[in-house]
Amino acid sequence: MKALLDVGSIGAAGLRGLLDRARDHADALRAGERVVPSLDGRVVGLLFFEPSTRTRVSFDLAAKRLGATVLVLDPDRSSINKGESLRDTVLTVSSIGAEILVVRHSEARSPALVHTWTGRPVINAGDGTNQHPTQALADCLTLEERFGSIQGLRVAIVGDIVHSRVAGSLVDALRTLGAEVILVGPDAMLPENDLPRSGDLDEVLAEVDVVYLLRIQRERGVEASDDYQSRFQLDFDRSARMKPEAVVMHPGPINRGVEISVEVADGPRSLILDQVACGVPVRMAALEAVGGIDW
Amino acid sequence: MIGLVNGVVWGPGGPVRSDVWVEGDTVVAVGAAPGPVEEVRDVTGMLVGPGFVDLHAHLRDPGQTWKEDLVSGTRAAAAGGFTAVVAMPNTTPATDTVDLVEDMRRRAGLEAVVLVVPAAALTVRREGKEPVDLEALHGAGVRVFTDDGDWVSDDAVIEELMMAAARLPGAVIAQHAEEPVLSAGGHMHEGELSRRLGVAGIPPAAEHEAVARDLLIAAATGATYHVQHVSSASTLDLVAEARERGVRVTVEVTPHHLDFDTGDLESLDPNLKMYPPLREPGDRIALREALVAGLIDAVATDHAPHLAGEKEVGFADSARGVIGLETAASVVWGVGQDPDLLFGSLSARPARIAGVGRHGHPVEPGSPANLVVFDPDRRWTPQQFHSRSANSPYLGRELTGRVALTLYEGSIVHEETP
User: Fold this and answer.
1) Minimal Cα–Cα distance from A85 to chain B, Å?
2) A104 touches chain B (CB under 8 A)
3) Domain that holds residue B123
4) What does the buried/exposed string (b/e) look like for A2-38 if buried means 16 or more CB atoms within 10 Å of the residue's CB?
């Protein structure tokens, strides 16, 4: 794997391989075992052109656990604000010596361009409203750890799906792994595709194993309607109507009181912190995959 | 005397198998050689017709000669079979006075390998506010007036210009029809793909509104109005309806709008970024049909050279536009494999619109020796260009049909060595 740009292009085998490797890392981390420093001496560049907390920190730790040196490009302090083009910035960072590039950018397909320009291995850490493959992988690992397998699970993705790069990757990953996906939200927040959809959360709530909530992306010009919370917020009452073993997920950052109520976010069904924890082993696997490490 | 022998000659009665003989700047015979022959080209199986006329090229000279200049631009034109190119006035400075028009003609006379036909701006400095001196420019021979790249949106300004143009024989008001409020900040067609990728969109309504307004004023003033690079099906309906009412309106389409649509944009290839943007597959098919049916008069390249460093910077930041002079004929040939369509849409009709008298005539004794030889069977893959820039969507894509030879005023200005 030369680059991890989206979920669709790595295929079922690529996805399976990454998840299996990530699970090995997760087991080792939990057991307190020492991780083999497979990227010892390599330089990983974290190029985050958009703000990020969990993804950047999680890549940082993943790279360090594998023994890599991490070079962080901080957009607030770099030449990006002096009008330097994306191309010039990444060519500079690549020439300085970053061998594996992790890229987040507000524009769709930018990581693919970075891969073309530099010829370096690239991981997409979120590109505009397009894809966020390592988040989807972390979510799949979370689900496999909870349910054993994703095959046959029914997953409702709820909220601002059209502007969500997480949803873009997650839908592809879940369907590849055999889950049934239904998209739930107001019409204006649903993408134009052929997937099953509903405008009524209550109608699907009792039928699904997973309710995957998304926040409304105000930074992309979307506003919730006045009735959004009454129609789509997962609150205690709705949570109580879910199947007994059903779970609640959210890629963060969460807006308590908007798409999810405070008590559900912290409640027993919530896997939100498990998703965050799975981010590190998944990103270790992704760094190894594009770094050419044989498993 | 130069002979082009065994070709299929596009003459006044349609294509015929014959030989064409050129002496000086004139076709002296079609058929038997009328005198001693100096040079002969065997053009068996190839089409011989009038050189192409591009209504819409950005030669970037003066002001942005790192992208293109009169030499490289007209060499690219010659390689594409063009014997005349209308040079858009969005240069620096903008071509908005008689002096600047004459300066361009003088320099072209020294440097260019085919005819450069300066178009003049509609407004001073292309700012959309103060009309240029249309009468003086018309007196200096300018026929095409446009602020291309920017639509003149002020109703009073365009009305004044159209009223003036209506009194000037042959004057054409050409507009880049994109209403600036609806298209503001957009980078691609507004639709499923732009929403999915979160790229700001330009709705077809931006073009529709602009053309609708222009047609109203053209109808009221009697001016001849030309729609530059039409992109969407709904605009074609407007034009058809206006023509029925007798409005004097002509339309051009670019080669890339005939070949590409949003279905090709998944990769966000910067060489598919241009304004107006590529529209949906249904629009592209409607454009091809309208070209074949004659509703669209001409294919014009909108040749817009940019260097890689200006294009390869991400889709939003990428410079707008693609080059097209060297591939246009292959694209038009691909639409219908039809000599009448090829020479009609790339030569005869654009020559009439731009008022370039020595171009666009069917080949017969006495017609000017501005000629192209087109090999319809030649397969080729563009890899490098005569243009100074290489921002072509056809880079690396196989095309069928290629210009073999271009004669400008009787001189060979391009010859393809197979």
Assistant:
1) 6
2) no
3) 51-360
4) ebbbbbbebeeeebebbbebbbebbebeeeeeebeeb
